[in-house]
Amino acid sequence: MKKAFTLAEVLITLGIIGVVAAMTIPTLIAKYQERQIVSQLTKAYAVLSNAYTMVKAEYGDLSSWGLKATNTGETDENGHIIYDYSANKLLSERFQKYLKVSKVCEIGKVCYPGAHYNLAGVKLSEENQVATEEPGVSASPDARMFLQDGTYIEFGWFSNNQGSIMVTVPTGNDVIHGKNTFYFVFNNDKFVPEGKANGYPEIHTFDKCDPESSGTLSTIGRGCAAWVLYNKNLDYMHCREKLSWDGAHSCKEAK
Description:
The chain has 255 residues and is α+β, with helices and mostly antiparallel strands.
């Protein structure tokens, strides 16, 4: 007489497999998505730093361009700060020559469809914001664009002969600092990711790659780019309190 599993035993086994799958598959998917972000950001860094090398070769050092600080330090008759977006417009224009751009944002039209969040999950802006040049916005509409691979980049404020670029890799509709959105800074000498001391004034360090960061809400999550590029992980989203540049560089190392 041949032995066989009963229907009850088969159903129990399938149930166990289902429970295990439900517990492990989301984790595997999340890990895959994080690896994808590392890959996308690495590519974006290479593309942008190469573009900046080409821009400098054509136009010379940034300090020779006559760029003005975005925050002029002056006020109008109503006491509002006067902003000058000519620097990020010119930077955008010159970078575009060496980038594969699919779309440049326009005044009066929705540029990026998603909402804007920091790493702590605080919502900084609503969805479907119409691009404007209102005083104090992060960048002029024509300094915001999409590359052909779906990467969104935005040239930020300029000051002290230093520019910045926000990069959102194509993983979803929302802009989330430190999760799919990262920052780079550049001057005459370097083009580097924010998040590690690089000798730049006002750079956001790894302290700002923490949901518990203090200070301005919009800076929480700005100090993550260097960590992702050098350590090839987003483990600060899982064990941030155990990580540091001088200590463990992954949750696995921290165990």
